[in-house]
Each structure stands twice: as C-alpha cells, then as structure tokens.
Amino acid sequence: MTDSAHQYTYESAVVRSVLDSARAEGRTALTAPEGKRVTDAYGIATPAEALATTCDDAVALADRMGFPVVLKIVSPDILHKTEAGGVLVGVDSTAAVRAGYSTIVGNARKYDPEARILGVQVQQMLPAGAQEVIVGATTDPTFGKIVAFGLGGVLVEVLKDVTFRLAPLDDTEAASMLDSIAAAAVLRGVRGAPAVDRAALTGMLRRVSDLVNDFPEIAEVDLNPVFATPEGATAADIRIILAEPAVRRPQFTREAILESMTRLMKPAAVAVIGASSEDGKIGNSVMKNLINGGFAGDIHPVNPKADDILGRKAYGSVLDVPGDVDVAVFAIPAKFVAAALEEVGRKGIPNAVLIPSGFAETGEEALQDEIVAIAQRYGVRVLGPNIYGYYSTWHDLCATFCTPYDVKGGVALTSQSGGIGMAILGFARSTNTGVSAIVGLGNKSDIDEDDLLTYFGEDPNTQCIAMHLEDLKDGRAFVAAARATVPKKPVVVLKAGRTSAGAKAAGSHTGALAGDDKVYDDILRQAGVIRAPGLRDMLEYARALPVLPPPQGDNVVIITGAGGSGVLLSDACVDHGLKLMEIPPDLDAAFKAFIPPFGAAGNPIDITGGEPPSTYEATIRLGLEDPRIHALILGYWHTIVTPPMVFAELTARVVAEARAKGIHKPVVASLAGDTEVEAACAYLFERGVVAYPYTTEQPVAALGAKYQWARAAGLLPPG
Amino acid sequence: MTDSAHQYTYESAVVRSVLDSARAEGRTALTAPEGKRVTDAYGIATPAEALATTCDDAVALADRMGFPVVLKIVSPDILHKTEAGGVLVGVDSTAAVRAGYSTIVGNARKYDPEARILGVQVQQMLPAGAQEVIVGATTDPTFGKIVAFGLGGVLVEVLKDVTFRLAPLDDTEAASMLDSIAAAAVLRGVRGAPAVDRAALTGMLRRVSDLVNDFPEIAEVDLNPVFATPEGATAADIRIILAEPAVRRPQFTREAILESMTRLMKPAAVAVIGASSEDGKIGNSVMKNLINGGFAGDIHPVNPKADDILGRKAYGSVLDVPGDVDVAVFAIPAKFVAAALEEVGRKGIPNAVLIPSGFAETGEEALQDEIVAIAQRYGVRVLGPNIYGYYSTWHDLCATFCTPYDVKGGVALTSQSGGIGMAILGFARSTNTGVSAIVGLGNKSDIDEDDLLTYFGEDPNTQCIAMHLEDLKDGRAFVAAARATVPKKPVVVLKAGRTSAGAKAAGSHTGALAGDDKVYDDILRQAGVIRAPGLRDMLEYARALPVLPPPQGDNVVIITGAGGSGVLLSDACVDHGLKLMEIPPDLDAAFKAFIPPFGAAGNPIDITGGEPPSTYEATIRLGLEDPRIHALILGYWHTIVTPPMVFAELTARVVAEARAKGIHKPVVASLAGDTEVEAACAYLFERGVVAYPYTTEQPVAALGAKYQWARAAGLLPPG
Predict the structure, then answer these.
(1) Interface predicted TM-score (ipTM)
(2) The whole model's pTM is what?
(3) Which of A38, A91, A35, A46 is nearest to A67 (CA)?
(4) Do A155 and B157 count as a contact with CB atoms less than 8 A apart?
(5) Of B356, B386, B416, which one is at a domain's C-terminal end?
C-alpha cells in the first residue's frame, strides 16, 4: 500500500521509530507524547504542550504557556480520557492547576487502578469560539485506508454529519470534503461568524491521508477535536491506533483482465461440462439455450456417458475436445467440479463458468478454496460458483439455465444474487430493454465487479453498466475500474445491505462513525458511480440511460399540458438535482406565441390542457432547436384533441428531425392519461424518448441520473 | 380563533394592554421590555434584566446582578440586534460594562442613524454549557398559528432541524416536539452531558402556544436562544411581532357537509346542463357516461335547443325538470354558468358540478367570485370549476367527460389537477384497482378536500382515501377532518409543490424557518396522514392499502427463496420503519425444520432457491399461524421447481385458509423472475396479497404505509 511517492524522509524516520518502539512494547495505542511526535513529523499543528510528572512541574509549565490551560491524564492504558475524568479544561490559575493535577490523577486511579500513569499533559488552551471539527483516518475492510471529516462536538455523534474519501487524497478531493457535510455552510461562516481557514483544514486532511498511506500499520488516526479558526487549524487531541496491515488479494493487470474477459464474452468455442440430453437437467438447459440462442461458435458437450447431445458430438473429457476452447461452462454437481477444473486447466481454457451451488454459500468454504487454488495454479479465471450463468447478447450467447434473451442493446447488467438476476431478466423482457450482457457473479470466488467493469468499459456495445452487489471483495480495484469507465459511460450500482451496518454504528471515534454504508456512499460517489436507491431504480436507470444522449448543459425546461404535472415534475427536478432554466425574455416570448393567453410561459411552460397536437409540436421543436436549452421534460395530458399515440408520434418525429440536424438533447416524458398512454410510452422509448405512464418522478429520476453521470464524467461542471 | 378556554385573566389583561399600547403607537414589533412583560405574564422564564439609560445606570445594574452580564441595544427600530453590533456577551467587569455601553450605542447609531435608541438592556448571563434551543410561534397562511421548536445556535439555521405543530398544543404534542428533531438525542444528554429539563421546555412550548392562541394579533413569537439546563429553560431573547389576524372563511357544520356530500355522491336524480346529442361535445360525453355507466337514478338533460337527448326528455331550463334534483352537472361555457347557477339555486338543487374552465385558472377571478356569491346566496355547494367531473362507482355514477370506470372497491381518490385525474383513471384501469370514487377538485371555489374527507370517512364503501393537492384552502379544517377519519381508515396525501418554497426559505427567525413544506410535512403527520413522496407512490398506496388487513403488532418476518431479495427487503424495512422480528429459539427451530440445512432461519428466513412448493407453503403457513408474528414479507425466486403461478396459487390458498380461521395478517410479496411473475402478482393482488414484480421496495413501502396508518390510528403504539 506504500505506493505513493512522498516528500517525508527524516520525518518518516521519526514516525517509524515511534511506531517501532510502541510495537516493541506490544502496544497498539500511541501515548499522547508519541502522537505528538508523529503529528509534528507530518506537520499537523497541535497546541503548545508538555508533560508534567509532578504537580509543581505542571504549575511551572502552565505559567510559561499562559492561562488558561488544559490538563489531561497521560496513561498508555487509558484511551478515553474524558470518560475516565482525566481531562480538565479552562484551568485558569496556579491554584487551579495545583488542585486539578490531584483531581485527575485521582480520577484516573479510580477509573482503572491498574493503569500506569505517566503524568499530566499541560496544554495551551485554544481560543474560545473556534469551530470544532474532526479529522481522522481509519482502515475500512472493503476500501482500506479512508479519511474522515466532520464537524466536532456532540452533533457529529448525534447527526453523523461526516464524510469519507479514499486515501491518498489529492488537494481537490481534500477540499471537496469540506463541502460534503450537511453543515458545510458553518465552515464558510454564518451569522457574521468568520470563515475558517480552508487551506489549513485541507492541508491537515492531506497530511493525515499521507500518514496512513505511508504507514499501513496505522489503523486509525483521530484528531478530535480540531480547532479551526480563520488563521489555522490545530488538533487538540490525537489518538493513533496500530494494527497489522491487511494483505490485499492478488491483482491482475488491466491487459490480463481484458484478454480473459474478451474470451469470456466473445468466445469462439464453448465447452459444456455436464451437458445432457435429458429435459429438466441444468446441463440440458444450458445446451438448449446456447443452441437456440443462436451462438455461432463451436459448442462442445462434455459427458462421458454420451456420444451425441442435441446433435453435437459429445466428449468424455474436456481434454478430448479438439482445438482451442475459450469458456468451460460447468453444469455438474459441486463435488465433481475440482476434478473437471483440473482438466480445464490442463487444456488451457482461460475461463470456467461455475453454475453449481454447494460451495461457500452452503458452508462448504473448503471446497471453494480448493477450486480457487486449482484455478490459480492453471491461470483459469472463474465466474461463480453458484450462478445462473451469463448472457452476451451481441454474441448470441446464452450460457445459462434460464431462458434465452435476445434484445440487443446498450446495457450490461450484473448481479451477485441469482434471484436478482431473474428479476433483471424478467424486467428486461417485459420492457424490451436492449441489453449487451447479463452476468451472474454469485460467490465471486474470482471474477468480480471490477473485472467486468474493466471489460464493459472498453466494450463498444455497452453504453451503460448496472451492477447489483452485496459487497466488494476489493473496493480499491472497483474504484480504479469505475474511474477508468465513468468518463466513457455511466456505471449504476445497487448496493444491497446498505442500512443494517449504518444502523448499528455508534460512538464517536472515526472507526465507529464509518458505518459501512456511509463509506460506500461517499466513495462510490467519489468514483463517479450512480447509486440506485433500490432494485427497481437500478432496472429503470439501466433501461433509460443508454437511450438518452448526454446533456450539453444545465438548462432543463419543462413543457406540460397539465399544470398539475408541471408542479410535480418541478418537485422531482429539485429532488434529482436538476436546474430549471430561467427563461430569457426573447425565448419566453417565443414560447408564448404558441400557447393560449391564459397558459403560462416561464418554466414549467404550461401549454394548457385543451391544446391540439400543433401546440405540443411547436413548443417541443422550439425547445429542441433553441441552443440555450439543454434538456426537455414533457408532461402530457390525455385529451380527445391530442390522443396519446398522436402525442407520441409527433414527439418522436420532432425529436428525430432534430437529431437529423445534429441536435441531440435528452428528452423525457410523463404521460398522464387512460391506459392508451402505456403503448404511447413504449413507442416513445423505442424512439429515444424516455417516457413513463402514471408517474412524474420516474422520467425525471432517469434524467437526473444522466446528469449525475455527465457531471462525474466531466462533461458538465460539478452540480 | 380565541376559542380555547384558558386560565389567564389578570395576565391576559397585562398582555392586552402591552399590545394595545404598541398598536396605538403604530408599532408591529414589541420592544424588549414589552416582550418581557408579555412573557412574564405567561410564565415564560427570562433572565434577570433591566433597562439602563445611562452608562452609570448599566454599571449599577450589572453590579447588582453579578458578572458576567450581557448588554443589548434597545431600539424599536432595530430588530436584528446582532447584525447591528448591538449585543455584547460575557461583559465581566465594571470597566467592560462602561466601555461596552458606548460601543454598542455607537454601533447602533452607525447601523441606523434614524433609529430611536431607548437605552441598553443589562441582562444576567446564563450558565455556560447550557443547551441553546429555539422556541417560537408564527402564523402560517394555510394552518394559522403554529409552534416551532429546534436546537439553537448556527446549526438550526444551517441544518434547518426544526419541527412544527398546530397551536394550541396539548402536553403530549408539546412533548412530541422534543423528539421530532433530528438532534433529539442532544436533549437527552450525550457524552456524559446532562439531559435538559424536558418539562420546562414542554411548558414553555405550551405557554407560547397559549399566548398566540389567545392573542391572534400576535403574528410571531421568537424565543431565541432559550437556554435549557437540567433545572429549567430560560428565554434569553424575546421577539414579538404583531399583525392583523387573518379572517377564516365560513365553516359548514359536519352535519351540513355530510348531508350535501351524500346527495352529491349518492344522487337519486342528476341534471346535465348543456347536455348534447352531438359527439365530441362535453355535454354529450357526460350524458353517455351517465347512461353507459349504468346510473340507476333519473338523468335529466337540460338544453333549450332539444326535446330529446340520447332517448331522455330534455328541458329548456333546470327549473322545468320535475321533482327533486340532487346534482346539476354543468357542461356549458364559462360565460353561461352564472345564469344557469341562478336557476339551480332557485330549483333548490344542493350541488353544482362545474366542469367548464375559464375561471380563476385563466385569470377570470371575477367570474369565479360571481358564481361563488350566487352559490352562497342559494346554499348550493360547488364542485370545481375546471374539473373532469367525478365518479361514484358503487352508485354506478360516471359524471365526467372521460371514460366510465366500473371496478368497485375500497379507495376514494381526489385530484386538484385534471391531468393527475387522468393518471389516476389510467393507473386504476391498468391495475384493476377497486375504487369507491374519483373526484376532480379543480379550482376548489367551494368544495375542497376537507368536505370530501368528512364524507369518505363515513362512507362504508371507502376503506382508504388518497388525495392529490397543491394547496389547502383551510389547513385547520383539513386537519380536523383528517383527525376524525384516520382512526377509521388511512388517508394518503400527495402534496405537490413541496420543494420550491422550502428551497427559497432562508434566515433564522421562526417565520423564515417555516418553509411551506416542512410545515405541511409536520402537520400532516401530526394529523395522522400518510404523505406519499410522489404520484406513483400515491397510486400504489391507494391500490394496496385497502387490500391489506391492519397489522396487530410490530413483528415483521421475511420469508424468501432468494437470499439476495432478503437483503434488499431488509433494507426496505429499515427505510419504511418496519421492525424485523427477533425470532425466538422455538420458532427458529420450527422454521428450520422446513428448510435445507444450509438455508438460514433467523430473519430473513432464507428457504434457499431450489425449494419445492411445499417449502414455501409450510413456512408461509407457520408464519401466518404463529401468533407472535404480525406481518409477512415474501421474497419469491422463479425456478423450474416452483414456477410463478404455482407460488401464487399456494400463497393465495394458504392466506385464504388462515383467514377462514380468523387469522388476518398483512402479507406482501416481491416476485423475482421472468415475465410470468406479472400474472402471478395480479393473481395474488386480487386475493389480498400485495405483490409486485421486479421490485423489492414497493411491497415493503405498501406495508410500511399500512403500519404508519395503524400507528396514527392508535391500533399500535407509536413507532
């Protein structure tokens, strides 16, 4: 993990010696003086302070620093000093220092009679009125070293207003943390209070980030509170915890991933191990789906008990199959997998797709470890086990025991769970969603989201990637793959299990604040990923995003026949971070020319309910052709004058005409009406207009997701 | 508004004299000493303080109170003292008081050279470490007097962590405010800080509530900050603003509303003014829908140019129609409405349904005022104008120009907007939703949501009411109607325009904090209303809530074939405030007996994906029959072993068997699978199981809404 170049050399040696001596003593927590040596070495500002080992010492030190001072117990055995009654603030006279010294030593002895007490820290007290913040770093099981920032005091504990980033941070990322907390305005100064020194805070975040990045054995750093003033930022308390650094699992190079994934997704030859002629068997379903799906490559059934399966020559072993094979699909019981995988390895097949269950998910971890070891020995990449298989539609490949799927299109979908995979399939079929791939990941013994993301990022048939996941085996690899992909195409993630961990998190130190989900949320956003709040949202985004062209600017305009829809569409714009354009006077006049005098221009543009098709057509055309407008939201109201299919036809036509002129703007529509609006929506969707019946939220959510991606991809300035 | 009995008599006289003298001087803001007389009269604690008109005065007063003190400018012309540099805190010596006096008087003069300066308030300084809170009251345009509570300091301003209630408050409501802010835990004491005196805060909220309730001309009260300690609560700053009290529009009695609404919804005879034989005319559509809808009462066309319309005798005027008429439906242009309404009034028809547009919504306020005046003169209740009409399905009444709707059922739907009304109709037809009524409210010149709520609350055919609204003409009448209805049946509200006002709100005083939407949100919740976040949610709740029996307790159990669905269903439970039951050991063992050894009991109960129908059946039956379980969430995974319709049939059968035994528990289901799950969901929905395909969120959201209602109705303890 010490992969970042850094400028600390003498300073690093200081930290190294502090850490080494603490570990030599078998301690995982640094004392306050040790903490100060570490923070001093990394240029993290702390108040003037010194250790007093006697009461007289303390008085002398306080006299030198000036009153008031803070007194704190120093003991390697007492981590939570406040709880131990080991802290006194605002000690403002010689007599008070003298009394305070005895008090906190007494308290500490009562709190833990076994504690070794090294003395009392006397510390310069920081200016009243400074803003308390928390700066910290911890080691997340998924993402490794992460940096935390929040407002200090009791509110961070109660409101959990904290934000996280992957370490190491650059300056832009560090600065973005100050804006990412709910109470960000406090740092800019409110009600006449001065703004804090942002450069000082940003610098402190970077220094903490560098520290944990340089020393992987530093598991946690807590600077809490940090006093932020207009002139600087000073850490008043330092807590540093050590642990054995985690070992990251082996990494494949980007080239190696692309090579094996390309053979997985575009194979020339597939072997089906456990192929069967018998209806109802998985090995039969897989064969049928490969054949009926229209796969043009070679399909080699492997089954020692058959000569021919579904008209294809069968082989006793994969070793007998002639020529190169790109993928071996396993449709045999778990207990036979290891032996067959050995043969796959010996044959030099690069990909094993393990459909069978009966591995880690049923408690058979040892069996799974065994197959992983075999695969690693031969360099075979493993998809699964415990999956429904996968689809690669542009290659007419249905290597699954479900039903074929043949609507080719722009979205690649993956799911960790088989049930969710079936929901993906059903939804896609029901909505006629154009798909480039559907992949089951199951136990993720090897191939996981970052491998697939790396491939789909480069796949010209894929315009959007949507992934259901419950965990990430390697959060850093995923973030790296997402960062490489997002500038090219949107990545949507449904992270399941998002609430439980957060709900259990408690306490005030950085580790406890880092409830799983908040860390996922911040770091996925940092990686530019669109996080779907639920399954249906993921599916709808997957359907809609490839259909919409990227927006070229922020100006969104609503054109509606129903005033009521206009209000709800405006609500949805606020919910999804879209900016309703302030219509300039000339454009307002241009819209007004088309609508009745009692209609409202402005934004929403309310063309009123009784209007003929020509009014919809003229206003939509103007919305597309005026270069100051960047996206359209249409609100349709079913009337006898303009029936649903008439609206759909005219809208699709006007959009197509604009595209023929090189005008590509995202257009979404909400259709309010009787059931005929359903067919109208399907007609529009097929023609590049994202349209939904009976909802004002869904079309705006889809547009909002497209904008979120455009910002993450750098096509638009940050929102 | 002075309708509440109260115990203040002498005290009221004091307040009256303060208010009268301020108004006599033409002032709308009370001075600090006036504010103190008012708060003293109502028993609201404030710090020791007195007015100094000279510097020497100030020094003498401070000496008497003890240091430190606060100095504040007193001027009727300076409301925002801090911004004027007119406040000094922590003034801790005679010399500092002397210097401070000149400073703030100087600052105030600079801030506003015209300001009349009456002196400087010298105030006892409150204990450091007290929790600052804000207590206030304001006058909301929709709801009238409302009380506000939040944490003080800059965070209330930045994080808007404030809660609102209608005045007058009772003790329970006042106490609930302390728990309704995000930072509620702060008041209970965190990190060893003591809890504040809740009774003192609750008392202060009640006193402020009584004050504004007793004196409607008090438009706004701000106690900010209030210092809350373990021993009391003291208002450090008082700001009171006066205004002319608003006049409430005339109220109908509950009996009068029920009588006219019953004749509207269950008429024996309907006249159609502007009935027509000509296709495409609104008066023709209305006639056809009445006839084809199967209305069994009399239908009287009124049209001076026809003798017969669609086989019914036509009349030249409604005055010529024989016998009583309950409803006159208007299908004539706006300009003819007034004259026809006069005749409706003279005929003694109690209800006029005004379909035509061309009134206030097109700027013709005067025309609308004219018809309202005519209606009031004759005692005619008016629905509309500018509506699609209304449906009363159990009475086979389709008094609308849309298409008939005949699926009788338990939900009454209303919409302010015609477009949303069409979405309601389309959605209901597409999903086969059982409906008791659909009503357009349009311009709400007279009949509004509280009239309809009052009626539907009593209507035995209505089990749930869902309302789309953009505003409330009389928020208090709506709350009263909701409170009377919610104990009997759920009320769902989609409040449109919910974000704009909130986004515009700014500043720190109570009036500015009361952004429209937060007030609606808190007060609708206080009234027990379920607020739908969007149109589709309202429609889905409307469809699902009448189908689900009320839960009898908090224990929710998830039974799932797909582990992946189980995780997402659990997420959704947290989102929707549902409590996953902790399964006791005997019940755990009972479930385990039915599922494979690698399946997981606990909650979710993961029966695993490959199980036959018997496993679903046994576990669902156990879930229904064990009395400790109160609601079931099912996660189905499409397999060859248990196809979708097999699951649907067995689930519906087991639920029906339980109901036959008197076991009524809400059961919802998420079906993950290929498109056959859609038919399975429809089958289940018709049989009382709320089931959705391709979503884990929607079924749980419906169950969550049912629980929210059950708590509001007092069937379950508060969540």
Answers:
(1) 0.89
(2) 0.90
(3) A91
(4) no
(5) B386
